[in-house]
Amino acid sequence: MKIKCLIVDDEPAAREILQQYTADDSRLEAAAVCSNAFEAADVLQEEKIDLLFLDINMPKLSGLAFYKSLSRPPAVIFTTAYPEYAVEGFEVEADDYLLKPFTFERFYKAVSKVINKNAESRGDRDFILLNAEKKMFKINIDDINYLEAQGDYVNVCLKDRQLLVHDTLQNMQKQLPENRFERIHKSYVIALDKFDYIEGSMLVCGKKYLPIGSTYRESFLNKIKKT
Q1: In terms of domains, do 154 and 96 share one?
Q2: Total number of domains constituting the chain
Q3: Are residues 88 and 189 in the same domain?
Q4: What is the pLDDT of residue 89?
Q5: How far apart are CA 91 and CA 190, in angstroms?
Q6: Looking at the structure, do residues 164 and 115 belong to the same domain, yes or no?
Q7: CA dihedral sign, ordered 38, 10, 6, 100
Q8: Does residue 131 contact residue 120 with C-beta atoms inside 8 Å?
Q9: pLDDT tens track for 145-166
């Protein structure tokens, strides 16, 4: 499963280099390329982004200010031509910091650092812990059929019950194994082994009909063909 990246830089040359490096790294997929933080904010509303390549020194809204504004930020590798920004970059718990101009070798090392960190945090657990109903539930991953976004909450639909969790769909998906779950709509993430069939733009899971969004359809179909 490739890591979905968002490249944000106001300099065309810098964007081109990051696009080329991302294309050369088989672990990565550039989901979008933006020239400012406002474009990036729009992408984050629509796409599940795993990693930001974020320029610090941008007009109107800096990369640091933008990243601090995110309630559930993805992993971030800051990029800049100004070494004096390094300390502030690490103060917001950046995963790494690339000083322009940087080589592909240095780029690859930074990405590996993010991948290793994610692997360590996720581990090989077969359960997740969810806070709901003023309790902490231990939920077996095998029992999860799908997740449904409901405003500021996520409805976790299990085989025998439902739990309403105060969280975002994007953050909830990060807690689940990437090879077993996939987003099919801005409001739905499904377990790949739990649905019954696909009919047109709908996916059927038990008695529930879930919409497949056009943005997610191709990625979802490609993934289930490989499962």
Answers
A1: no
A2: 2
A3: no
A4: 53
A5: 35
A6: no
A7: negative
A8: no
A9: 999 999 989 999 998 899 999 9
Q: Are 70 and 43 in contact (CB under 8 A)?
A: no
What's 104's domain CATH number? 3.40.50.2300
What is the C-alpha to C-alpha distance for residues 27 and 25, in angstroms, rounded to an integer?
A: 5
Which two structure tokens, joined as six digits, stand for 184? 């099919």
Look-up: residue for tokens 């031509």? Answer: 81
Please name the residue that has the structure tokens 């090989």: 124
Q: How far apart are CA 201 and CA 221, in angstroms?
A: 12
Which residue, 102, 122, 142, sits at the end of a domain? 122
**140 confidence band (pLDDT: 50, 70, 90):** very high
Q: Who wins on pLDDT, 177 or 36?
A: 36
Tell me: the pLDDT tens digits for 68-107? 898 888 999 999 887 776 555 556 678 888 999 999 999 9
DSSP line for 122-182: HTT-SEEEEEETTEEEEEEGGGEEEEEEETTEEEEEESS-EEEESS-HHHHHHTS-TTTEE
DSSP strand pairing (188-191 vs 144-150): antiparallel
